[in-house]
Amino acid sequence: MSVAFNRHGTWAIYRFEMARFLRTLLQSVLTPVITTSLFVVVFGAAIGGRMSEVNGVPYGAFIVPGLIMLSLFTESISNASFGIHFPKFTGTIFELLSAPVSPFEIVLGYVGAAATKSFLLGLIILATASFFVPIGILHPAWMIAFMALTAVTFSLFGFIIGIWAKNWEQMQLIPTLVVTPMTFLGGAFYSIDMLPPAWRTVTLFNPVVYLISGFRWSFFGTSDVGVSVSLAMTLVFLLACLALVALIFRTGYRLKH
Amino acid sequence: MRAIVSIAGLTKRYATGGDALKRIDLDIREGEIFALLGPNGAGKTTLINIVCGIVTPTSGRVLVDGHDIVRDYRAARSRIGLVPQELVTEAFETVRAAASFSRGLFGHAPDPRHVEKVLRDLSLWDRRNDIMMTLSGGMKRRVMIAKALSHEPRILFLDEPTAGVDVELRRDMWGLVRRLRDQGVTIILTTHYIDEAEEMADRIGVINHGELILVEDKARLMKKLGKRQLTLNLQEPLAAIPTELGEWSLALNANGHELEFTFDAVEEHTGIPALLRKLEQLGINYRDLNTKQSSLEEIFVSLVSDRATALQ
Ligand SMILES: Nc1ncnc2c1ncn2[C@@H]1O[C@H](COP(=O)(O)OP(=O)(O)OP(=O)(O)O)[C@@H](O)[C@H]1O
Ligand SMILES: [Mg+2]
Q1: Cβ B89–A11 below 8 Å, yes or no?
Q2: Ligand 1: residue whose CA is nearest its atom 6
Q3: Which pTM was predicted?
Q4: B191 alpha carbon, closest ligand
Q5: How far apart are CA B298 and CA B310, in angstroms?
């Protein structure tokens, strides 16, 4: 019964992870929805009232892609890292390691589920935001593509963190110390054109800038950097994560003794 | 008979410590119940975990039904069910979901009827919709077994299946193991309860300090190493063993109230009739007498301690 692809196994992992999501549906959805609403109301209405427009877009609408990206980053990372870290922590990972599933299938199951969740959440946030501010989407297909790519990439990144982390503190380390600051400094709530030239140059080393810029372009047709550059950066990040995951499974790093 | 698991030159050195396994060679025969005995830290779990793919070996080769566990891991692992030593469960998963998950994970299409049968066999059907958190330890152990059986393994590893399990469940478990064997499943179990190995196993392997000291048919092992003892409860205590009894290997116990004669279980001429006649001649009377066969436990203890003293 040697099969080339264990679809039942992959599906079992995916379903298990989605079931965990559904068990905590209310808090999974409510938290980002409330956060988004607060951001849009506070930034959009209070500050936006004095700022009028950024690159020809009303400020309230301008921050929405940034907000969605911020949620995609954090949710993808936390979903995926938790999904693989928890079995490591409780010991139930023994079953995964003893099962006839390939690394690819394991990643497909865990990362697929985490990406699905954060993708859906992204859509929910978009819907919530459009309740407060009118948002037109210029390139819907690209928007979906950017969202999906980002969800997958950061879920992979989260998966790596979940394997790397030795405890719950380390799980929080990268999201709070690296990802959130990079997102805030990456133009989630402003255009980098608004920065002094020196800072703008520094900012261009922040990969998050490219992700947000491309995503924002799919909404409003304007961007800080070229769309193709954004896309390329996203893909580079995706491939880097894939390579790292492959390495982890090849060496059994922090999975097997 | 064909070897369904074939282990050759297997060693394991953990990053943090010494050798957990030292060049293990072992063939498990198809359809047998093999008991792996050994004290704490002997390497039993390490051996099982390597075969199952949870621990990477330092060197050596393992074939499962002819499939290399590293190169052809899919084929090897799909034949194996594992019930680990530690009870690890997903707190919020229901019993039935847990079993169905394992079935899927091991590449089988969903089959609610099979899952139901397994749960019924383990008296878990009534608890099928309960989440794991609400089960007792013994029930969790059964769920672990149900998970392993849900994917119809041909080889079942039971790592201390009856640790922390009550007498009744232990009997149930032994019954289940026998039924599985009758269905052709090969079973490898580890245990500290030597009576369990004695009761269940076809063959016994003794492992200590990462070395497989001995692998033997249970019956032959008992015969080969088994001693029998005749104990005589004396009417009058003896101060010392009379010199006339020098040709028998005797010991005086219980302040001289018991005379103990140890003899080889397999020998035709035990020397008992001659001993009893001699006692009569000497006027040593006894109230009662009984014989006993040394248990596997004693065999095991003597094996392990012989080895330890030999090493010193
Ligand atoms: N993950 C690990 N890292 C380092 N050393 C380990 C690890 N797991 C086991 N060991 C060591 O390897 C040796 C064998 O352990 P193992 O768990 O295989 O023993 P065992 O025979 O199953 O014992 P027990 O009867 O207590 O379950 C022990 O010395 C143990 O300390
Ligand atoms: Mg053990």
Answers
A1: no
A2: B14
A3: 0.85
A4: 1
A5: 18
Same fold, B3-223 and B227-293: no
Complex ipTM: 0.89
**Yes or no, beta carbons of A2 and B74 under 8 Å apart:** yes
Structure tokens at B11: 């060693």
pLDDT digits (tens, 9 = 90+) for A87-128: 999 999 999 999 999 999 999 999 999 999 999 999 999 999
| Token pair belonging to A141 | 């297909």
Closest Cα in chain B, distance from residue A159 (Å): 19
Token output for B226: 């088994």
CA–centroid distance, B20 to ligand 1, in Å, is 7
Give counts: helices (H), strands (E), chain A: 12, 2
CATH superfamily of B3-223: P-loop containing nucleotide triphosphate hydrolases (3.40.50.300)
Q: Find residue B6's DSSP bridge partners.
A: B27, B63
Instruction: Given CATH 3.60.21, say whether it is the number of domain B227-293.
Output: no
Vertex B243 angle, CA B238 and B246, to 5°: 110
Residue type at B10?
L
The Cα–Cα gap between B212 and B8 comes to 12
CA–CA separation, A14 and A184 (whole Å): 32
Residue extents of the structural domains in chain B? 3-223, 227-293
Single-letter code of the amino acid located at B169:
L
**Cross-chain Cβ contact A2/B77 below 8 Å:** no
Token pair for residue A16?
């298990």
